Amino acid sequence: MKQTLLLLAVTGLTSAGACAIGVRRLGLPGDGLGSAIRGMCRLAGTAIVFLALNLAIGLAALLMARGLLGAFVSVYLLNDAFLPVLSVLQAVIFECWQGQRAAR
Amino acid sequence: MRRDALGTVGAVGVALLLAIGFTPLPNVVSYWMAPSRELAPAGAIVILGRGGVNERGELVGASLLGLMEGIDLYRRGLAPLLVLSGSPVGTRWTEAARRADVARECGISGQAIVTMSSARTTRDEALGAWALLAPRGIRRIILVTDGQAMGRAMLLFERAGFDVIPSYGAPVLEWGGTPEARLGVMRQVMIETVARLYYRLAGYL
Q1: How many CB atoms lie within 10 A of CB B55?
Q2: Which residues from chain B sit within 8 angstroms of residue A44, using beta carbons?
Q3: Strand order in the sheet with B82-85
Q4: For tag attachment on chain A, is the N or C end more exposed, with fewer CB atoms within 10 Å?
Q5: Residue B16 in contact with partner chain A when CB distance is under 8 A
Q6: Closest chain B C-alpha to A58 CA, distance in angstroms
Q7: How far apart are CA B78 and CA B42, in angstroms?
Q8: Could you read off the pLDDT of A42-76 as tens digits, one per residue?
Q9: ipTM
């Protein structure tokens, strides 16, 4: 419980600090925050789609390898915390790429 | 429209992630998935493979925890036999053999230990345990595995012919835990959900 509160307090504080710096120092419009949150949701959605695709293709490949090689291949090979991290990186690159097109 | 759909998926995903980290949602789901039955004496304690052995030949943490839980049940006199399972995948040491070494070092008699090293899946473990224990007339067993995996494992062992008691008896709903621990629990819940779906599609359940 203490750890949960600490995490929420720390991230709340840095978020408030970022908002203050954004508005006062960088001149960002305050009403643009909602649009930024929607952008974050889109990015998260893209990451979820990449993760689902990575898992589905990985699982299919492992099951196919079991059938073709006739040897046991564990599906737990996909159970790695780095797969979601890589999916997020894929999503960031893809969204940045789309952002470049919109900026042109 | 497509980007709106992605935004909705993302919003649901972020909301779910926050709910997992900062509410007891994973604890409740895990509790709900865990079968319950009163702990009682049985013919054997079957400890399923969990994570295996590292490159130095040491049992990984989850494997050692499962073994210690089984040894504790044995010392409480709940069964006269320990069946130690483990996959041979990975290193030149098998998980089952290393578990047997540790059990003997803990003072368990070699006659009370049976190892099962060839099973690579939970289904293989159920069939292998039946092949080992049915000729000894053992039908009732205490099963040791992760809480989230217990439901599927129990069904498989019951399907093989056993009368199964989960090692923890009745599950306890724990409200605490750190956000990272809750994320770990939910990860296991999701893995187990996919495994159950696969086992149903394959006709194992």
Answers
A1: 9
A2: 9-11, 13-14
A3: B113-116, B82-85, B44-47, B140-144, B163-166
A4: C
A5: no
A6: 14
A7: 6
A8: 999 999 999 999 999 999 999 899 888 887 888 88
A9: 0.85
